[in-house]
């Protein structure tokens, strides 16, 4: 999904995840509607075994974007202990005789390696056309229940039974899966409880609501729906802005009439404001000159030492770590001193570093190499937070040895 359209679509209050799976009686639909409450995803509606698109439409809020999952018995999945460079390479490996235009390929993460799923484009298009005829705005499509991998990090269970499949987890990641019916479970997702048969639908809504980095099947119809919803939102926003403009114009006219009656007071207030701005300008100019003088007064030895620190840190940096901020002698925040107009105070002998590490083992190895430097007293961890299974952000403070130690 294009980033611009995603920002429009995901600004909606609610988002629906819908899984379509096949039974002996025909297809069935599972739906979970999520909304963000106090910054967290919350289940506001769920339903299982719906028999028609019209039933689904009656349940959903108007113009609710749908993230769709296709669970077909004709899907082909293969597990590999390596990752493919692209989808064309995966298709040639699994199904050499297939035409690339007829097959849709998607990748899903595993604890070790990669899961590759293949399906026929024509079968999915038929389902999407039925949804389109029912007036349902599907903006994203992928393979179910494999999209459930997006929620695996939040589960404590080691076995999860979804529709027609059983997943086995290890450390919150997919370890093995089998195409077989398992006993449904009640899953705990934070404060929410969810039937495992609805896990794929919940994962689809979660992908949309939390903007999870999961690619989608490339279908032109979905892009058309994205644009249609975006333009509808634009129209609604334009109408709201136009009404706001008229209201503000009326209010401005009213305020202007009142202002004419108090012209003398307004002029006096304007003069006072300008005097205040002049005083603020003078204060800022004085602060600037103090900072310039402070920088000019730094000794050549201090600058040389800072360059030495920066060079040592750069030479120790591995490829697996990317620095976002490097601050030598960070500024000590002192609001009282700032109000009193005192010169800023820099924390000599400290180096604050922020960055991104691919894995914790690389981060720990790098810290050990820093600790081994002759001028390093110790290293204090400030924060370390995982972004996903492959990388994390960190912040640490390097305390330098004092001269003569």
Helix content: 25-40%
Structural class: alpha+beta
Number of strands: 19
Encode the helix/strand succession as letters. HEEEHEEHEEHEEEEEEHHHHEEHEEHEE
Beta-strand percent range: 25-35%
Main sheet? 5 strands, mixed
Strand order of the largest sheet: 3-2-1-4-8
User: Assembly type of the shown chains?
Assistant: single chain
Number of distinct helices: 10
Walkthrough of the structure:
The protein has 2 domains: 1-231, no CATH class; 306-400, General secretion pathway protein M, EpsM (Gyrase A, domain 2, 2-Layer Sandwich), CATH 3.30.1360. The protein has 10 helices and 19 strands. Helices cover 39% and strands 32% of the residues. Strands 3-2-1-4-8 form a 5-stranded mixed beta sheet. A 4-stranded antiparallel beta sheet has the order 14-17-19-18. A 3-stranded antiparallel beta sheet has the order 5-7-6. By secondary structure, the protein is α+β, with helices and mostly antiparallel strands. The chain starts with a helix and ends in a 5-residue tail after the last strand. Residues 1-6 and 294-300 have low confidence and may be disordered.
């Amino acid at each position: 999904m294009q980033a611009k359209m995603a920002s429009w679509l995901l600004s909606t209050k609610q988002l629906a995840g819908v899984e379509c799976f096949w039974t002996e009686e025909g297809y069935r639909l599972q739906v979970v509607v999520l909304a963000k409450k106090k910054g967290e995803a919350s289940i506001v509606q769920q339903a299982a075994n719906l028999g028609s698109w019209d039933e689904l439409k009656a349940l959903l809020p108007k113009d609710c974007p749908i993230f769709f999952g296709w669970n077909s018995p004709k899907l082909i999945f293969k597990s590999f202990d390596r990752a493919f460079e692209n989808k064309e390479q995966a298709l040639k490996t699994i199904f050499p005789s297939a035409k690339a235009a007829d097959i849709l390929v998607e990748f899903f993460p595993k604890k070790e390696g990669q899961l590759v799923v293949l399906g026929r484009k024509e079968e999915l298009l038929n389902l999407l056309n039925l949804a389109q005829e029912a007036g349902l705005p599907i903006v994203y499509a992928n393979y179910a229940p494999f999209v459930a991998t997006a929620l695996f990090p939040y589960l404590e269970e080691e076995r999860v039974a979804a529709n027609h499949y059983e997943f086995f987890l290890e450390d919150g990641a997919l370890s093995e899966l089998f195409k077989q019916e398992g006993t449904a479970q009640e899953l705990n997702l934070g404060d929410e409880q969810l039937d495992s048969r609805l896990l794929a639908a919940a994962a689809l809504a979660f992908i949309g609501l939390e903007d999870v980095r999961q690619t989608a099947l490339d279908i032109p119809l979905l892009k058309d729906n994205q644009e249609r919803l975006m333009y509808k939102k634009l129209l609604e926003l334009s109408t709201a802005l136009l009404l706001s403009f008229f209201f503000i114009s009326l209010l401005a006219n009213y305020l202007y009439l009142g202002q004419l009656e108090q012209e003398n007071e307004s002029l006096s207030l304007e003069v006072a404001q300008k005097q205040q701005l002049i005083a603020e300008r003078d204060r800022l100019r004085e602060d600037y000159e103090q900072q310039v003088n402070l920088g000019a007064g730094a000794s050549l030895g201090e600058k040389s030492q800072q360059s030495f620190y920066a060079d040592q840190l750069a030479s120790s940096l591995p490829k697996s770590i990317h620095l976002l901020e490097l601050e030598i002698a960070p500024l000590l925040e002192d609001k009282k001193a700032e109000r009193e107009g005192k010169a800023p105070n820099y924390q000599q002998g400290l180096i604050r570093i922020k960055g991104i590490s691919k894995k914790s083992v690389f981060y720990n190895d790098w810290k050990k190499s820093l600790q081994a430097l002759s001028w390093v007293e110790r290293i204090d961890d400030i924060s370390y937070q995982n972004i996903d299974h492959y990388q994390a952000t960190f912040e640490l403070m390097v305390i330098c040895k004092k001269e003569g130690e």
